[in-house]
Each structure stands twice: as C-alpha cells, then as structure tokens.
Amino acid sequence: MGRKILFVTTDQQRYDTLRCNGGTIARTPVADSLAAAGIRYERAVPQSVVCMPSRSTILTGQHPTTHGVWMNGVPLPVDAPSVAALLQRHGYRTALVGKAHFEPFLDPFGRFTENSLARSGAETVQAPWADGSTGPHRGFEHLEFATHGTAAPLHYVLWLWQNHPEAIGMYYPVLDPTFNVNAAGGGATGAPQVHDNAIEKGWYHTDWVADRTISWLDSLSADDDWFCWMSFPDPHHPWDPPKSELSRVDWREVPLPPGYPASRSEREAILDAKPAHWKMWYDGTLVSNYEAPKSWVPATLTADQVREVNARNAVEVELIDEALGRVLTAIEARGWTDDVDVIFTTDHGELQGDFGLLFKGPYHVDALMRLPLIWRPAPSAGIAAAVVSRPVGLVDLAPTFSAIAGLKPPSWMQGHRLPVSDVDAASRGFERVLTEWDSDLFGVDVHLRTITRDGWVCTAYRPGYVHDGSEGELYNLADDPLQRFNRWHDPACAALRSDLITDLWDHQPPAREEALELQAPV
Amino acid sequence: MAVIRRELRIARPADEVWPAIGDPAALPGWFPGIVAAQVDGSSRVITTASGICLPEEIVTNDPVRRVFQYKITAPLLSNHLGTIEVTDADDGCCLVSYQTSCEPDTIALVIGGACGNALHELRRQLEAQPDVPSPAQLQAQPPAQSGSSPTTEA
C-alpha cells in the first residue's frame, strides 16, 4: 500500500485569496492548516492563464506548445499523455470529479466525451492512450463533471434536473443569446457576471463536487491506492454563490484591492505604459479573446463593483474551503490521513479589479500568474513543513504525482518534482518558469512568451494584430509587486532584459508536430 | 458575420473524394457528431449526436465544379452558408475546403470547428482505402491487353 493523492483544484483563484497567502477577506482555515503542516509555494506560476491549456499542462506535465492546446476551444487529443493514465496503469484507482475542461463546452454536435458521458450513464469510456494501448478516458476510471452554471449537459446538471429542477434557472446564464460571454450585471452594483442565486447551499456545485468526491472515496477498499482530482468550478465567474451565504462578507466593507488604482487618471497612465492591447481592451476598442464579455467595457468598472466582485469571490472561496474540510474529514474517517498527500492549487488567476480590469486575457501579471499552491505531503512521508519562494510551475505537478506514487517521471513530462524547500529547489535548479499565450479570435491574434526568474517577470511579444513584435513587459517583483512600472524600455535594465530574453528563447519547449485547430470559443 | 474556412489536402484525386461530398445523405458517414441525415429533394434534416435536429436547404450540388452548398435554416442562427469545394491538385491529390459563414460569430466558430474535424475524418477514411484508379485515370488508360505481362521500371 502506497501514498494516496487528493489533488484539489479551483478555477481562476488568485494567490491573495487565501489567508495563508496574506488574504484578508475570505476565511480559509482548512487551506491555511494544510499550508502550516506542509509546503506553501510563494511563486507558483501557470504555463497558460486560461483554463484548457493550463489544465492540459497539469494532466500531461507538458507546456502548451508541446501538448498543443494553445487556447480554450482547442481540445486536448484524447490520446495525449496523462499522469492519471500512468498512475492507473500502476494500480492506482483514479477519478476526476468536477470541472475537467480538456474538451470544449460548446459542443452541439456532441463530439466530446466530457459532454456525452453523463447521458451515457457510464463511469468512463475506453479510449486510446499515448503509449498505443487503450484504457479509461485520459486515465480516469471514474468521471463526474460539473462546471459554472447549468448550460452544459454534465453530471451535475443532470443531477440537478433529476433532484431539484426548480434550481436549474437560478444560476446566472453564463452565455448571452449570441453565445458570447454574458455581460449582464447584477447584485447591488450591477457588476458584470454578478448574480443573486437563490439555490440552496447544499445544491450548489461546490457542495456537489465534495459530496461526489466523498461518495467515490467511500466506494474504495481500505487498501486501495488512489488519485482523486477534485476540481471545483469556483471561484471563476459568474459570481453567483448561494444568496443565503452572501451575508458572510458585506461588500460595502471590502477594501479595494491594492492592485486597483482608485484614480481613473492613474489607472489609465499605468495602462498606457503597457503594450497597446491593455488600454485598448480597457477602452472597449479591442476584444482579443473570448474569456471576458465582448460587450463589457472595463473602463465602466466602478470601485463599488470591484468591492462586490471581491466579496462574492470571497464567499465562493470560503465555500470551497469548507467543502475541502468535509472531504478531509471523510478521509480521516477512513483512517487514511497519514498516507494521503493533499495538493491544492488552481489553473490560473483572475484580474479581480487590478488595473481596473476583471476576468482574464493576455496579461502576464501576478493577478493571473501568481497562484495558490499548497502541498501537504502524507504525514507518513516525514517531510518537514516549509515555504518555497523559488518559482515552480503547474508543469511540475505531474512529476510530483509520479514521485509520490514511487514512479520515475516519464520522459514526456517536462517539469520536475516539486521542491520541498528552497534548499531543495536551489540544489535541483528551480530557476525559471515559462508561460505562454496564443490567441486568434476572428483575425485578432496575440502571442506572448514570458519568463519568471530571479524576481523578475519578462514578457516578449510576437507579431500579432496590434503588436509588431518589438513590445515587451519587464517587472521587478520585489520593488514593484503590483507590476505598475514597465521597465522594458528602461536603459538601466537593458542588460537584464537581454539576459532574460535570451534565457526565454533558449528554454522554449519543443512544439507539437501538427498544430491543433480551434474547435469552439470555449 | 464570421467566416470560418478550413481546408486540407487529401491524397486522393478529386473524383474519388467528390462522391462522399456530393451525396447529401452520406454526411453521417464522415462528419463526426452528425448521426443522421434525411434528404428530401433539396431539403435535408441532420441530427447531431447531442440530439439536435437542424433543417437545411441544399442550394448547390454541382459535380462538374465539385461544389456543395447548403444553408442551415434553424432559427438559432442567421445567414448561414456552408460551402464545400473539392479542387484537383493534378498530382493524384486534391484540396478540400469547407467554409462556414453565419451569425452569431460564436456559432460559426463551433460549426466551423466541427467541419474542420470532419475534413480530417474524411481524409482518414479515404486515405485508408487501397489505391483505386479514378474514373478519369481509367478513361486515360488503354484497355489491358489479354495475355500482356506487367512492365517493371528500373
């Protein structure tokens, strides 16, 4: 019997939403206690700041350039390498409960397993694997899916239809009648994607994900080794937690985030110093990607709307923390705690008011790139608690799962087992993390390549719709933690910039042989 | 209105590829996600794997130019036009393009994505078949002589 793995992801959660990371709004005692007993990473960086590429990186242990999922709407090939398949082949019981999103949601042709599995009633389907064999879909022998709201035909929606059909219409409609991301506002401030959801807390998808995880764990034998990916759809927008829970955080009392410059002129001066697409999106003159409502203009965002979004986000974060606590209690009841590794993270961040913006896009700054990451090793492993400040990536998760299972990470994984301390990180060469962005929506294309190293974040732009390829961003994370001052053109940083750019291009991962096509907006 | 165009090369001559395109009832055989197609004259109703029925009007089916065009007439979208064109490359291969235009843009992207995937499936099926001479090749070849022996090239 080996170590078991509870892998917990949220969706679009900022680093600073956890108390253990300095957050002040949401109460997160469960995550905080995991951090205190384990390893808390202060600079965990995604390889993409959107869902599908980032989640594909987690599963494959590869950068987006290599696994090929360059944007939402590009499905990860069903036979892509999968750490879940590796574990399953070596005797682990495997499950994914909650949001997967390796395949597009908008799927009227019903081509993708994630959208068809619930109706089939099967726990999984047999599919080709990267090694030429076949096995359960992406290595998961048990799959139960959920996402934001009730538009997609996933397990959670079917459960709601069957048990609480009156609640179906209570959620915020994620898409508008033109199938674009909905810009409709609500709550007290009219903030976009804020909505009063009358659903009972126990029916909300956060509790459902925890309930279904516990149910799957209960189905296992005491001696089973298992890998369970529990994937909460929150706190990704829409911000529509159960209305009954809103009193947890009074939005009027929520301080404006440090990243939100309250003065309009200051906001706009900061944006003007960044590559053109920042201000163009703010002004409503350019929509470069599908991730934010097309018809919403960020310049209209008010301070009160920022407060209300942050309040509702905090409510969702608290609900996740409590749900995680219930799952850990269930694990304790099975007598497994000593042998269970718990890893908590998210796929990418959320602007959440920084620079006067919401949602996400081609913006490689801490709001989207600094992630919560906590690894509470199995107590039986005897690994000391620590804080790691060196940069690590989500690409390092798959090798970490492999190592926990006692397996040598296969050669297709591009990351490395997470360090357990800064000393360990230094000795094993954790120096840089790479992040990339490629989007092409109706002829508007944006291409970024970023390196995080030595306390700096440096982004190079490739030619695109509004960029000629000479643009860039360079931020000192120590002196400028809010990334307000772009040092790209600072002569004093010329040598550093040159060194970082050389390092960035020298370490680009190999590209997938055949480019994958966009199949849907999301 | 968005226009999404996908195209790929198939290592088969246009004459071999066109029959699948030009037979409006054959669509479920090569378009993943379409499970049925009922054809009545210039009308076609397709059923997707998720159970959606979409009525269509066939507006062009030209075996000479090898062009097939249809409109989805469901109220979900407007100004739809799907155009499939098979162009001989004169090297035993052909280029197949599948263009989708419609509103809203997002639906054009979804349909266009499925059409691109269908082209890949069409190529997979056709290229998996053993080489067979096309009607044009058969016409160009002199009839085989009884008792002749095959020639070999050094």
Task: Determine the CATH superfamily of one domain in chain B.
Answer: START domain
Shape of chain A: globular
Percent of sequence in beta strands of chain B: 35-45%
The amount of beta strand of chain A, in percent, is 15-25%
Taking pLDDT < 50 over at least 5 consecutive residues as the criterion, the unreliable ranges of chain B are 142-154
Strand order of the largest sheet of chain B: 1-7-6-5-4-3-2
Give the name of the CATH architecture of one domain in chain B: 2-Layer Sandwich
Count of helical regions of chain B: 3
Provide tags for this entry.
heterodimer, A: alpha/beta, Alkaline Phosphatase, subunit A, 9-stranded mixed β-sheet, 17 strands, B: 154 residues, alpha+beta, Alpha-D-Glucose-1,6-Bisphosphate, Chain A, domain 4, globular
Tell me what the structure shows.
The complex is a heterodimer of chains A (522) and B (154). With 522 residues, chain A is of the alpha/beta class. Chain A has 14 helices and 17 strands. Chain A has a single domain (4-430), classed as Alkaline Phosphatase, subunit A (3-Layer(aba) Sandwich). Chain A has helices at residues 29-37, 51-60, 64-67, 83-89, 113-120, 155-163, 205-218, 264-272, 276-283, 303-333, 366-369, 397-404, 422-427, 494-506, and strands spanning 4-10, 39-45, 93-98, 126-128, 134-136, 142-145, 185-186, 191-192, 226-231, 340-346, 371-376, 386-388, 392-393, 432-441, 444-453, 456-462, 472-476. In chain A, the strands form 4 sheets. In chain A, strands 1, 2, 3, 6, 9, 10, 11, 12 and 13 form a 9-stranded mixed beta sheet that branches. In chain A, helix 7 runs parallel beside helix 10. In chain B, 25% of the residues lie in helices and 38% in strands. Chain B contains 3 helices and 7 strands, in the order E-H-E-E-E-E-E-E-H-H. In chain B, strands 1-7-6-5-4-3-2 form a 7-stranded antiparallel beta sheet. In chain B, a hairpin with a 4-residue loop joins strand 3 (43-48) and strand 4 (53-62). The chains are: A alpha/beta (522), B alpha+beta (154). Chains A and B meet through loops of A and helix 2 of B.
